[in-house]
Write a structure and sequence with these properties.
two-stranded antiparallel sheet; single chain
Length: 259
Amino acid sequence: MKIVVAVKQVPERDAAVRVAADGRSVDESDVAWMMNEPDAYALEEALQLKERDGEGEVIVLCAGPDRVTSTLREALAKGADRAIHVVTTDEGEGSLAARDTLGVAKLLAEAIKTESPDLVLTGLQSDDLGAGQTGVVVAELLGVPHATLVLQVERADAGIKVKRELEDGWFQHIEMPLPALLTIQSGGNKLRYATLMGIKKAKSKETRELAAVAAGARVDEVVKVALPERVKRTEMLTGSADEVATKIVEKLKFEVKIL
C-alpha cells in the first residue's frame, strides 16, 4: 500500500505570539516551528499500517517555505520512506498565508496526484488555524471517499476498516474502498520518537521539490488579528450558604465550564 501523509508545520505551542505590524497576521520573525500534532498522529497511523502489512511505502508531503524541511526530516527520521516539499515563499502572494483552505488544498492535491497513492492521511485539524477543512477539500479535489475523526485503520478485503470517534463516547466502524482519504484524530496511537539510527538514515532518503502553482483569488479575507483582552471581574454572591453554594456550582458549570 502506498500512503501519502500530508503534514503542516505550525508554531510551537509555547511560542510567544505577537501581532505583525499590518495588524492582519502574526509576527513570525522569531517563532520556533514544529510538526502539527494531529498530523504527527496521521504519520504514526501510516507507519503502523506499513509495519503490520510488512510492505508498502509512506510518503510525507508538506507545503511551505524552506523552513519546513526540518519537519520533513523529522518525518523521515521516524520512518517515512521519502518526502515531497511543495515550495512556497515566506511571505507575499506566493506564501501559504496568501491562500485560503481551497488554495492550500489545491497545492496538496496536485502533488498527491503525481503519486497515485492508495491512501491519503492528514491530521484532523491544524493547531494554528483549527479549521479542520483542508483534508476533506483535498478528498473532493481528488474525487475519493473520505472519513473524518478516525482513530484506527485496518486493512480489509475490499479496502480498509476505520474506527471513527463520534459524540458522547460513541464510535462508528465502517468499511471503505481504496483509494481514500482519512483525517486522523489525535490520541489514537502513542507517538514514536526519532531514533539516532533513523536520524542518520533520513539524510540519505529522497526529498522531491515541487514548485507551488500561483495562488488564485481568496474566498475569505483576514480583516484583523488581535490578542485576547485580559479582563478581571469581581462579583459578590449574596444569600444563605446553600444559595451561595448553588450559585457557585452554576457558574463553575455554565460560565467557567470546569464541571
